[in-house]
Amino acid sequence: MSVAIPYTTDPRPDTGLYNAKLGVWLFLASEVMLFGALFSSYILLRTSAPEWPAGSEILDVPVAFVNTLVLIASSVTMVMSWASLKMNDFGKYRLYMGLTILCAFGFLGIKAYEYGTKFSHHLYPAESTFLGIYFVLTGLHGLHVIGGLIVNSYLWGPGAKMWKTEPDRFANRIEVAGLYWHFVDLVWIFLFPVLYLL
Amino acid sequence: MELEKKDAHVAHGHAEAHHESFWRRYVFSQDHKVIGLQYALTALVFLLTGFSLMLLMRWQMAFPDDAMPLIGGLFSEAAAPGGRMMPEFFNQLGAMHGTIMVFMAIVPLVVGAFGNYVVPLQIGAPDMAFPKLNMVSYWCFLPGGLLMLASFFLPGGAARSGWTSYPPLSVLEAGQTAWLFAMVLLITSSLLGSVNFIVTIVQLRARGLTFMRLPFFVWSQLVTSFLLLLAFPPLEAAAVLQLMDRLAGTSFFMPEGLVVSGQIQDYSGGGSPLLWQHLFWFLAHPEVYVLILPALGMVAEVIANNTRKPLWGYRALVYSVCFVGFMSFIVWAHHMFLTGMGTVISAFFQTTTMIISIPSVIIVTCLLLSLWGASLRFNTPMLFALAFLPMFGIGGLTGLPLGLAASDIHLHDTQYVIGHFHYVVAPGTIFAIFAGIYYWYPKVTGRRMNETLGKIHFWPSLLAMNGIFFPMLIQGLGGMSRRLYDGGKTYEFAADILVWNKVMTMSAFTLAAFQLVFIFNFFWSIKKGKKVGANPWNATTLEWTDAPSPPIAHGNFPKPPQVFRTAYEYSVPGQPQDFKPQSQEA
Q1: pLDDT for B463-474, tens place per residue?
Q2: What ipTM does this complex have?
Q3: pTM for the whole thing?
Q4: Residue B14: its chain A contacts at CB < 8 A?
Q5: CATH number for position A150
């Protein structure tokens, strides 16, 4: 039992936002601080280190490049799924959201393969500070992908029932989930060059 | 139409509230008032726990050769054989006192409890913007807090590296892993809470309640939420890195060739202990403002109400509190002047620290000038609010020598730091919390707390607080280090200032004794307190004028309020009464 909270679906006229949209932007701001702190730590550790390996010599650049494409593709399908709802095409929403989820699985699969080859060469986080920060950054990013995957799967499956009762609110949910998903994508866009190329 | 819809829902909610199960209503409640009370009671218990740990430490510092009386036998052989405290146990108590007080008592009280209960009422909202998230926030806080307390019973005991957890010590010592996991839960709770507060304040303000009409308390909560939102994630990042150092054997914070007890440690090296300090203080300095800003907000409410005048310089207060919030992100390294990070960086942070003192002084000055020419009502909340001003003043002024790199060389890590900080938070924030409890108690229960008992609580507490913390300033200027397990007994130079240890300990036990009066008053007044109406203080803000005491479960207001004027229109000339409610039509 709960009270009806105003502006859960319609934007408040003077702010132009519905509650969840403001909420997710604030949440993303805190996420920026989380990853920002880790990137800053990376810079501090690297600048104070006597030597720092070139990422491309330890890590697999082509595989990560493919993974980048997979993740960017998932961002495109995520937008398409939201646009489909806005155009009242629930079938297409299901399709595009399904593709987004598949891409997420693909990304995680490729990432798991990368981790596996590192472990099989006995390259663990304790090996060097470079590998340590590599595993922390990509691991935390991976957890964010898993989080997004769970939310998207819910919205593809049981959560989609809301389309029948409150279509506008459901479209808002996809928009909010999309904002988060693009952020996760964006983090990777920073991670890839920083860890693999620089 | 929007309003009509809301109206219908509120009435609907009222009728249905009676059919809720016990669990839904009191345990997993989504009503901001119940969650606020859950936070309040839990955090008050934690506050008492943190205080009790300190009483044990104070006994040890004043009487380092004597076993603890009465309860000495209750501790394990490892902690206190024969009732005499071991140094390791003393360190655990110190680390946990700081952690409990900051993260589990004061922040949950000022934000989780007062913020949750009062903010939606003051802005005329039916609830928080995300009631489920609000519930989850509490249910992250409670397990985090319990895990933190339970870590005392782990093999090896609780964390013992201070609340600041500086590596390499924190990476090597027992108990820290539980501390880190508990902190992750507490951080998550704060994060969810802060998103909720900002959205609530921005989106759910009543009709006509523009930003410049908000009560100052709401402003302080808004700024505080931004600090929590943006400052906590770096600590989360740091906690992850420290967990990796402890569990996966990385060396983010571990330098090369670290030798402990003659043994070279097996770390790959290349890490930086200083990095932790930067990440930690990037959180922990804004955190200090999280502790104090809501307190200033509460004091402002009580002062405006009991001076029967508008707050002096409302706009200056609002701009100052925003500026403090912003500046608090760029002063952190004034905690690190002695780490050898370099004079240029020290000069920068010394400058920003001096700058941040300006808006803080503006806030206190505005509150002080609000008293000018008023006929004050000296009720219990007002006494605590009035005492807050000079106590916070001492706390702030004693901070200046710490903010200047040169004088900090002498004072760093001495009892002076402890005295300074506690003046801000103990007779500062905690007095504001007491003011808030006495002030909003009638809103929650429909009854006032007993005034006589309140005054018996107030005056000895004020004296005892100063008896505890002023000698710390003296000892610190005398060069006494903090975190000394024997209270400084083994140091020859400290012989003349050792006597203050006994004064402080006596004062601490006195303080404890008079809190019993408060605890009695708190519970006794629920049933026996003087019954009052919706607006016993003749206040202007929405929580008093538009909601019954207690406010309606799920929905707060019988009808959605509308606001016509600024927050503190007291003693307006030519009016029949000396207050003009925000919701009263012109």
Answers
A1: 999 999 999 999
A2: 0.95
A3: 0.95
A4: none
A5: 1.20.120.80
